Amino acid sequence: MQVVMATNNENKLREAREILSPLGIEVLSQTEAGVHVDPEENGETFAENALIKARAVFELVKKPVIADDSGLCVDALGGRPGVYSARYAPKDQLCSKLLGELRDVPEEERGAYFCCTIAYIDENGSGTVAGKCEGMIGYEERGTNGFGYDPVFVYGDKTLAEMTAEEKNAISHRGAAMRQLCEVFRERYGETHADK
């Protein structure tokens, strides 16, 4: 079974493939599917943005499409950066800007969570699933395995960037949403793919 993921983000594609390929689901990027669209993500929620992306690609490929919108919500910043996580700062300055904003915030107020909403759409309709990963923002960047805010997001005694792919996928917001997506796929397409 093939699904198209409405992204060309190699990190998101890698995580989706790691979780879905054992179920017999091949994940194509939108470029691999011959699609070159970049719809404006002007939704006010993760779900709205994910659906915008999924619908734009589905209109062109007419096969099952998934799209994710995710972000970091920090308690001390009133939930920011939230849906603006990717646009909060230049990509190589995301962590440094966040650490700067939280410079004088004590540990007990550094709570944060990652949220991921995955939209799916096929000829039978669309829907969304969501996952969450709760932790805190550390005081420095640690680890080299992650991307985005992973080097400053602490879960237990490690940042997400210090974890192996298996460790991260087991607890991450995207992993949680992908596992829910697998259940949706079982219901929509039967057990054959999920049991491989």
Would you kindly provide a written description of the structure presented here, covering whatever features stand out?
By secondary structure, the protein is α/β, with parallel strands linked by helices. It has a single domain (2-194), classed as Maf protein (Alpha-Beta Complex), CATH 3.90.950. The protein is built from six helices and seven strands; from the N terminus they run βαβαβαββββααα. The chain has a seven-stranded mixed β-sheet with strand order 2-1-3-4-5-6-7. Strand 1 (2-5), helix 1 and strand 2 form a beta-alpha-beta unit. Helix 1 crosses helix 5 (173-189). The protein is globular, with a radius of gyration of 17 Å. The termini are close together. The relative contact order is 0.17. Residues 192-196 have low confidence and may be disordered.
Task: Describe the protein's topology.
Elements (H helix, E strand, L loop, with lengths): L1 E4 L4 H11 L5 E4 L16 H16 L3 E10 L19 H8 L9 E12 L2 E13 L15 E3 L2 E2 L5 H7 L1 H17 L1 H4 L2
Parallel strand pairs: 1-2, 1-3
Antiparallel strand pairs: 3-4, 4-5, 5-6, 6-7
Helix pairs in contact: 1-5, 4-5
Comma- or semicolon-separated keywords:
196 residues; alpha/beta; Maf protein; seven-stranded mixed β-sheet; 7 strands; 24% strand
Largest sheet, in brief, is: 7 strands, mixed
Spatial separation of the terminal alpha carbons: 11 Å
Low-confidence stretches: 192-196
Beta fraction of the residues?
Answer: 15-25%
> What's the gyration radius in Å?
17 Å
Q: What is the number of beta strands?
A: 7
How many helical elements? 6
Class per helix and strand makeup? alpha/beta
The top level CATH class name: Alpha Beta
What is the overall shape?
globular
* Multimeric organization: single chain
Mean pLDDT: 92
| SSE string | EHEHEHEEEEHHH
What's the number of domains? 1
